[in-house]
């Protein structure tokens, strides 16, 4: 079975990294299924039964998104709230659909890696900021939570345009495809 990549970028056409990552993954259709939330649910109304079926048809799951106000984009938060239901994702009676399933995050951030450190600009590591996802998936849903994959941009000042080199972006896309392969 393949990996389901749930891409949750609010404006994928304007994306640099997330768009490039998905382009790379599309070269490997036997590896994964790409599920783009904004394209499937432009009105924000999530078809929970469809999402459950998609997850059940795949062996592993990756949530791919840009760090958005030190969390995930709103549509992905809605997805978590609506899809990870009691009796399906957690709970005693049937809440085992993610149990033991490999789950990972693939995130992009515009700032440098050193900004996400105890001594950096934000005083928190990226792992610390992603802890709510790990807690939900690993401890609540009993998934086999895997280490995350991250691309740290090279913005000089938060909110400015990317300054990442094309080679760095290409290398990250190739490494991401290897990350997805290793998860399968």
UniProtKB/TrEMBL annotation:
Chain ranges of the Flavodoxin-like fold domain: 1-169
Keywords: Oxidoreductase
Keyword Oxidoreductase: yes
Entry's transmembrane regions: none
Gene Ontology MF, one: FMN binding
Superkingdom, natural source: Bacteria
Tagged with keyword Lipid biosynthesis: no
Protein name: Flavodoxin-like fold domain-containing protein
Species: Selenomonas infelix ATCC 43532
Source lineage: Bacteria, Bacillati, Bacillota, Negativicutes, Selenomonadales
């Amino acid at each position: 079975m393949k990996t389901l990549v749930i891409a949750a970028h609010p404006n994928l056409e304007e994306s640099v990294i997330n768009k490039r990552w998905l382009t790379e993954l599309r070269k490997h259709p036997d590896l994964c299924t790409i599920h783009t939330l904004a394209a499937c649910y432009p009105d924000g109304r999530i078809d929970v039964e469809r999402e459950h079926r998609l997850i059940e048809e795949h062996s592993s799951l990756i949530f791919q998104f840009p760090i958005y106000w030190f969390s995930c984009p709103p549509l992905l938060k809605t997805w978590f709230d609506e899809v990870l239901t009691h009796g399906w994702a957690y709970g005693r009676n049937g809440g085992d659909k993610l149990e033991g399933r490999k789950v990972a995050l693939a995130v992009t951030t515009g700032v440098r890696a050193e900004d996400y450190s105890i001594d950096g600009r934000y005083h928190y590591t990226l792992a610390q900021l992603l802890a709510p996802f790990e807690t939900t998936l690993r401890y609540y849903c009993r998934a086999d939570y895997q280490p995350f994959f991250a691309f740290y941009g090279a913005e000089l000042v938060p909110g400015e345009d990317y300054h990442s080199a094309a080679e760095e972006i290409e290398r990250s896309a190739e490494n991401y495809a290897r990350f997805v392969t290793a998860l399968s």
